[in-house]
Amino acid sequence: MSSFFGGTRRAFICGCAGPTLLPDEAAFLRESQPLGFILFARNCESPAQVRALTSALRDTVRDPEAFVLIDQEGGRVARLGPPHWRRPPAGEAFDQLAGRNAAAAERACYLNARLIAADLVNLGITVDCYPVLDLRVPGADAVIGNRSLGTSPTQVATLGRMACQGLLDGGVLPVIKHMPGHGRTTVDSHHSLPVVSASLDVLQASDFEPFRALADMPIGMTGHVCYQALDGSCPATTSALIIERVIRGAIGFDGLLLSDDLSMAALSGTRAERAKAALDAGCDVALHCNGRLEEMCEIASVAPVMRPKSVRRYERALGMRRTPVTTDPAALCVELAGLMGEARVA
Questions:
Q1: DSSP of 273-307, one letter per residue?
Q2: Quick check: 245 and 281 in contact, CB under 8 A?
Q3: Among this protein's residues, is 190 annotated catalytic?
Q4: Are 127 and 36 in contact (CB under 8 A)?
Q5: Phi, psi (5° rounding) for residue 176?
Q6: Residue 264's pLDDT is what?
Q7: 47-61 vs 23-32: helix axis angle to the nearest 10?
Q8: Other C-beta atoms lying within 10 Å of the C-beta of residue 297
Q9: DSSP letter assigned to residue 211
Q10: 182 tagged catalytic
């Protein structure tokens, strides 16, 4: 059984600055005991190097099962890429295929996720912040854009489930994002706080629907988005009202809930204030991504030991990890390329 269950692990996930773990970073991680870790392109140079890094990170918390996350969606949001790794297509490619052949798009989404999982498991990465369940909304900011699986809630839910299934069959836990819906924002939450004016009826019938359909997934991520019809004063990440009544209530999600990256400019206050606000609002885990040690120290200063409800959700997520189904990645690549109508998927 994981050492996590001794009750010492803390309600935050963080990264590190580069491709190797520095001594001061390792000392911080040993002392602070985060729930897990997240990798970015700055951390990923070669397969052997990434495997060494994921092992070193887990050694700091003395837990071989500690979560290691990455954002490997495809397209412009892919932390792994050539020459060592395949770069998956963006979500829009599956939307376009669905317009020609819905069954082919579902199979392609599954195969693509299985191939992503094969790359990640080989590196010791066990959680992928994918799929994006946000709708593509005309006139919205491009922050979601071609990352989306479509404009139809039903199609996004269907393709999203196939992506989740592919990851799970490959031994990787999916993270559905960005709850309760980021698709209709007109500014990029990396740079400023988006405010959505759509009515509750509109949100219920559209943005919420893919998340409701996949509420059984193990892990979700909030969006740094303010919804005037829900809570005009706080973005979802720091709104107890939205987390309790919408994400946990109307959507029905009872999985492990991560904040989006607390270093994004949509949020105000110090890193410690942001983390405390997110955890107080009902996020199970505060996520910090930029690898800056001084900011990680701020987060750790306010992140408590995981709460009992959060432990239960973590245990459920961990229990959904499977031994990867045996497969032939080369054969899956050929099949996927045929479905996508490409000569080669690289």
A1: HHHHHHHHHT-SEEE--S--HHHHHHHHHHPPBPP
A2: no
A3: yes
A4: yes
A5: -80, 135
A6: 92
A7: 40
A8: 15
A9: H
A10: no
In the chain, where the domains are located:
3-340
pLDDT at 303: 98
Tokens of 35: 């729930």
Q: Which residues pair with 127 in a beta bridge?
A: 69, 173
Q: Which CATH superfamily is domain 3-340 in?
A: Glycoside hydrolase, family 3, N-terminal domain (3.20.20.300)
User: 24, 190, 216, 280: which is the annotated catalytic residue?
Assistant: 190
Structure tokens at 228: 């005037």
Give the list of residues 6+ apart from residue 232 with CB closer than 8 angstroms, or none.
226
Per 3-state DSSP, the chain is made up of helix, strand and coil in percentages (nearest 5) of: 45, 15, 40
Consecutive 10-residue runs of the chain (346 residues): their mean pLDDT?
60 98 98 98 98 98 97 97 96 96 98 98 98 95 94 98 98 98 89 92 97 98 96 95 98 98 93 97 98 97 97 97 91 96 48
The reply to whether the predicted model has a pTM over 0.90 is yes
**pLDDT of res. 326:** 86
Buried b (16+ CB within 10 A) or exposed e, 72-91: bbbeebbbbeeeebbebbbb
Per-residue pLDDT at 80 = 98
Torsion 71-115-54-8 (CA) sign: positive
**Letter for the amino acid at 269?**
G
Which one from 63, 260, 261, 284 is the annotated catalytic residue? 260
